[in-house]
Amino acid sequence: MHSPHHSSTSSSSSRELSALGWDETFAAMFAEHADAGLVPARIVRVDRGLCDTLTASGPVRADSSALSGADREHMVCTGDWAALRPGSQPLLVALLPRRTAITRASSDRTSHQQVLAANVDTVVIAVSLAAPVNAGRIERLLALVFDSGARPVIVLTKADLTEHPGADEAVVAALAPGVDILTTSATTGTGLDRLAETVTGTTVLLGPSGAGKSSLANALLGREHMGTNEVRAVDGKGRHTTVHRELLALPAGGVLIDTPGLRGIGVQDVADGVGQVFAEIEAYARNCTFGDCEHRSEPGCAVQDAIVTGELDLARLDRYRKLMRESQWAATRGVARESGKRSKTVKAITRDLRATYRFRERQR
């Protein structure tokens, strides 16, 4: 029977963890580790075989080398929940399954994925109004977010540096139907209170360098935690203020993950996410005469009809095609890679069996 002291300590620990995003689902997944005397820890920052983590009893720097043998898609990542063995040399023993994961195609153009953040509830896509709106970048980021299962929020930053914030917001709204869009200015304070009310749970900031992510992070944290850099007026670009992914506790509960600016945003097997971003194109496509219509010159193409009548923008259709091609190419490469892995495994097993048979023959 548990003592009253143990019970109050346990409930206190649960409150500490729930502020970091812990809930009954994670607790159920962790049950077997709890029986082994391990404790839950949320990954704050990953650093060459070591991780900064947060636990119910406070920060712990732990050895994560036991989990470093995984492939890139399953390596320890900021936002992960892990099972930690406490002691004089704390050790991460296992990762809990991820509820969501923000991933992009690796920059080396292979079929591998790079996980940017794990167990994310809300993604803030930062878009600077001090530079021309980049429709393709917004659509790509939305596809990543939708495919992950997280909720996107587009935050237009630096509203004090544009003469027509309302017009810019209309342009972005046309790219992201149904997505919450906030207009903010760190200089004047416009929209920052509403931003704090909009984000929930685990929030990650995504966007290019110079988009104002660090200013948004400082506004949400209520303090100057992130350094901010000047942005070049010629192209609206800035240096990477944030150089690593880091998880930070928010004052009112929940956590924030800040990420370095993304130069390239490769997508991989995100057809479902692309379908959500370009929902109107897929809606038109359902009325095409042919099920395999490519929306080019086929008779009875409802998508081309929408372009002719001005209901659909040709440039948006072109971006949709490009994202779908890229996603399908990556998906095909991924299947080929897994098939290759299985083939190598089968070959290795066959080799071992042959060697065993030859050894037995020699023993006779």
TrEMBL record:
Subcellular location(s) per record: Cytoplasm
Signal peptide residues on this chain, from the entry's feature table: none
Origin organism lineage: Bacteria, Bacillati, Actinomycetota, Actinomycetes, Mycobacteriales
Cofactor detail note: Binds 1 zinc ion per subunit.
Keyword DNA-binding: no
Residues reported in the UniProt entry to bind Zn(2+): 288, 293, 295, 301
Role according to the record: One of several proteins that assist in the late maturation steps of the functional core of the 30S ribosomal subunit. Helps release RbfA from mature subunits. May play a role in the assembly of ribosomal proteins into the subunit. Circularly permuted GTPase that catalyzes slow GTP hydrolysis, GTPase activity is stimulated by the 30S ribosomal subunit.
Enzyme Commission identifier(s): 3.6.1.-
GO cellular component: cytoplasm
Protein name: Small ribosomal subunit biogenesis GTPase RsgA
CC cofactor: Zn(2+)
Keyword GTP-binding: yes
Major localization listed first in the record, in broad terms: cytoplasm
Family: Belongs to the TRAFAC class YlqF/YawG GTPase family. RsgA subfamily.
Annotated GO MF terms: GTP binding; GTPase activity; metal ion binding; rRNA binding
Cross-referenced PROSITE patterns: ENGC_GTPASE, G_CP
Keywords of this entry: Cytoplasm, GTP-binding, Hydrolase, Metal-binding, Nucleotide-binding, Ribosome biogenesis, RNA-binding, rRNA-binding, Zinc
Positions annotated to bind GTP: 157-160, 207-215
Gene symbol of the encoding locus: rsgA
GO biological process: ribosomal small subunit biogenesis
Assembly and interaction partners: Monomer. Associates with 30S ribosomal subunit, binds 16S rRNA.
Organism expressing this protein natively: Nocardia speluncae
Domain (CP-type G) ranges: 112-265
